[in-house]
Amino acid sequence: MKGKKLQLILSLLTIGTIIFTGCRPAAAPPPAVEEAKEPQYHICVVHNLADHPSITATARGFEDEAAIYNMKVTFFDPAYDPVKQLAMIEDCIALKPNVILVNAVDPAAVVPGLKKVRDAGIPLIMHNADTNEEGRQYSLSFVGSDYTEQGRAVGRTMVAQLPDGSKGVVIIGKPGQTGVQERIDGALEVIKASGKDIQFIDYQPAEWMKDKALTVMQDFLTRYPSGTINFVYALDDPMALGALEAIKAAGRLKEFKVFGVNGNKEACDAIKAGEMHGTALQLSYLAGVYSVRAAYDVIKGRLIPKWIPPPTAGVTPENVDEWYEQCW
């Protein structure tokens, strides 16, 4: 009898073990390793000077937005050499991307390369610096700021801050390139409409480079002694900052108001410090973002506008805190 009871207890224990084991959740399988997706699209970008802050910001916009659209981006940098840019456009064509995007070093010199893109059957978008009227027949769109409106924004700041009879000098970028004349014209338009006597009496190029602008401003300071000029308008912030360095080194900071364009963080800091007096936002990052979106629309067969401008706004001592997060 005792043997039968013992056998029954052992049987029940065995059944309980089976039930308990069966109810226990199975060990979770190791997480699957997600395979990297191959890029679905490919765009090829020929800009003009990768080291310039505006181009660096544009490239970052390209890369960030391209990741969203599963695009591969190939960049070529001709470093302001129009001959190299033509060769690099041919390099892009050889890669057979879905879309080619070009930032013109020279609006006229780039035209033969743009024609080759069209002849290769690859859609073309200009960005940041456009081509001329002849070249536009080969491109679908231009993604870039309203440079005239940027000039107007700076002009409004000049009118607000400069007294009647002011005379100043202008440091331009690369002569003939998109944005040079427009930024001058926009400022002059506002000044003329204001009725104030504010004159631009001299213009010199510094090719968008801070160190060259410093040298140009040193020459201006030698040519125009104290009391003859009281402001400088540089057509981008790196050049404005170069001019500012020359002015400070000469001990003439109190004589000058310094204006730029771009909205670089360093320029916005200089406005906060009272050493610069105005700039206009060029949201270059968004130029890269909008360029990728335009390229995607083209790939999908959608109609895109002939001009896609990122927004702009004037940055002044009064509103720099409001816009500071947009400075780059």
Task: Please explain how this structure is put together.
The chain is of the alpha/beta class. The chain has two domains: 41-144 and 284-310, Response regulator (Rossmann fold, 3-Layer(aba) Sandwich), CATH 3.40.50; 147-281, 3-Layer(aba) Sandwich (Rossmann fold). Helix content is 46%, strand content 16%. It has twelve helices and twelve strands. It has helices spanning 2-23, 53-68, 82-95, 111-119, 133-136, 147-161, 180-194, 210-223, 237-249, 265-272, 284-299, 320-323, and strands at 41-46, 71-76, 99-102, 124-127, 141-143, 166-172, 198-205, 231-234, 257-259, 279-280, 307-308, 314-315. The strands form three sheets. It has a six-stranded parallel sheet, sandwiched between helices. Helix 2 (53-68) links the parallel strand 1 (41-46) and strand 2 (71-76). Helix 2 (53-68) packs parallel to helix 11 and helix 6 packs across helix 7 (180-194). Residues 1-28 have low confidence and may be disordered.
SSE inventory with pairings:
Layout: H1 2-23, E1 41-46, H2 53-68, E2 71-76, H3 82-95, E3 99-102, H4 111-119, E4 124-127, H5 133-136, E5 141-143, H6 147-161, E6 166-172, H7 180-194, E7 198-205, H8 210-223, E8 231-234, H9 237-249, E9 257-259, H10 265-272, E10 279-280, H11 284-299, E11 307-308, E12 314-315, H12 320-323
Parallel strand pairs: 1-2, 1-3, 3-4, 4-5, 5-11, 6-7, 6-8, 8-9
Antiparallel strand pairs: 10-12
Helix pairs in contact: 2-11, 3-4, 6-7, 8-9
CATH topology of the largest domain: Rossmann fold
**Radius of gyration, Cα only, in angstroms?**
30 Å
> What is the overall pLDDT average?
90
CATH superfamily of the largest domain: Response regulator
How many strand elements? 12
- Give the strand order of the largest sheet, numbering strands 1, 2, ... along the chain: 2-1-3-4-5-11
